[in-house]
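## Example pair
The file below holds two records. Each record gives the amino-acid sequence first, followed by its structure token line.
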Amino acid sequence: MRPLVSAEIIAVGTEMLTPFRIDTNSLFLSARLNEIGIEVLRKSIVGDRMDDLVTTVANACFRSDVVIITGGLGPTADDLTREAVAAALNLRLREDPEILEGLKKRFAKRASGAMPENNRRQAQVLDGAVVLANPNGSAPGLWIDRGEKAVILLPGPPREMEPMFETHVGPKLARRTGARRLQRRVIKIAGQAESLIDEIASPIYVPFLKAAVPIETTVLAHPGQVELHLSAAGDDQKAIAAALAAAVESLTSAIGESVFSTDGRSIESVVGDALKARALTIGVAESCTGGLVAGRLTDVPGSSAYVRGGVMAYSNGVKSGTLGVPAELIAQHGAVSEPVALAMAEGVRRTLGADVGVAVTGIAGPDGGTPEKPVGTVWFAVAGPEGDTETYKRVVPGDRQVVRAWAVMVALDLVRRALR
């Protein structure tokens, strides 16, 4: 039988087309499928409309080896997944006496006792389907083989879906992928624009697709961070790992020192590891970022070993009173300036007894900008244990959230570079 190599995930539920619910199941499923060598080609969210569900399921079954549908297996009239799959695959639905008896026993253990009549719908199975037990809920899953392909129906609640996949679906799929596995590497870059990184990287990564081990590259951008995701699949895992390692080396050499991670670590983890390696502590002084830099540093488990604390010095009074920034320095240069940023970094290092001080002061907007210092102007400074200092200015285009997110990344990266 031909190995399973591609998959589509369909999340069912009108509620996930509103701002109030997020489809997290597809993230879990994508990770698990990738681990066993199955690449997810498409994800869909479909409301509780029969025609849309039937069309989506039919198209997915045509395109992909594996189709996983989550949700819509409940007892109510708008739970249409079973009926839609039956229509798309031209299969008959029948009531399974064993499932029905199990549902009745489940309800008999409750205070109400009797099973509501509409729960009988959950005892319906498609001809030829394998029933997947659900000890965590009332909706069983279904596995349907269609020639060399598989269609899998899973419940929507993650506490039901995830154990069902791990117990029944993942191991069975893994046996049908052969030796094929998918490997990924991620290059993370701080403080650079996506267009600039792609200008450098694309002449290198485009030829990867025609190499002996083809490698696909995807560029993802977040405020202050660009990621290059490299993936390759096949049977020879050593050859794939070697090809990806060579690709990473080529790209990181071309991009240079703005690369902060090739092993999956976040910028805050990289900074934390550098501080621990040198037995140093850090203190943070923040104005426009309002504590976000300290928040990122302390997101890392065990960060109490190197984070002394932070001062959210939003007002000039706190800059002067708590951090010891001379008032005349602020009056002469303004709160958003190189001398003030440096004084904040030195002040927080001294005040908190830290080895390293980092400071951020800027204009996040939407107000407060001037022709000389437009919105998005941010000054950064790092003060080290031996009087060594680094300062940096960045003018970030974008709204308040973008400016602040960029500022956090640049501040952490400035610390990383100072610690190298």
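Second record, same layout:
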Amino acid sequence: MNDRNNGALLRVSGLRKSFDTVRALDGVSFEAHRGEVFGLLGPNGAGKTTAIRAVLNILEPDEGTITFDGKPFDDSTRNIVGYLPEERGLYRKSRLLDTILYFAELRGMMRSRAKQDAMVWLERFGLSRDTGRKIEEFSKGNQQKIQFITAVIQNPSLLILDEPFSGLDPVNQLMFKDILLELRGQGKAIIFSTHQMDQAEKLSDALCLINQGKVVLNGSVREVKKKYGTNTLHLEFEGDGRFLETLSGITRAMVYGNAAELDLAPGTKVSDLIGMVNGKIELRRLELREPSLNSIFIQMVGGGAKEAVQ
């Protein structure tokens, strides 16, 4: 786990933004640190994209401050931030290499250097032989790769990714995860916005969960799990386990056939549970697992979020 006391590259404090009668952001604050993947999480419509657009100076918040290394956003900041939007932002009739070079030159790169770096990325993504093809000729997944290249081509210090795995098959998702961890190792600050908790749990060092424009929880993944989660005991057994649902020291029990998931109440030890079930069922497997972000997400946001985290 990275040390979060070394100072933040990005600080967002007290953001508020309304659209007519809708409060999209209501006092949102978070920080993104160098060498860290920061998960900006929440169900669809929670306010994540509005927060990102405020950070990128695409829209102006009604209240709050945003600083980069202690300074407000300016023209120099624009060139140290890479952005992968959830929506496709590519010119469909443009050719692949021309598209990447166009975005690179917008960020102040020399064309010769941009072409050299672009070919390295295209080779990595298996697209180096397709430089003359038009964007519209590529699959959704390959368009996502191209858009990612336009976000990282200028070697940004802060990389903001809004649903980066959209349109990618499992093999390419794994490739993207490896690249993000590689960029983290280079000291970049990465904001990873998603509503898919399994991806966030695998990648994030720290996170901020937003719901209905408000911060529900914020901190390192380990801190969040310790504060909000409940350790879950997974059992496999022989016998009738229906009695497990009535045990003391259990806050939640799900029994299905010869398996069960039990949430232990504070102070309940695994050894206590073993004593309570001894002689009633024959244990074949017992495993204590830390809570998942998905379970914490549903606990904090409520049942209405279940659809968003499928």
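Notes on the second record: Residues 304-310 have pLDDT under 50 and may be disordered. The domain at 230-289 is CATH 3.30.70 (Alpha-Beta Plaits).
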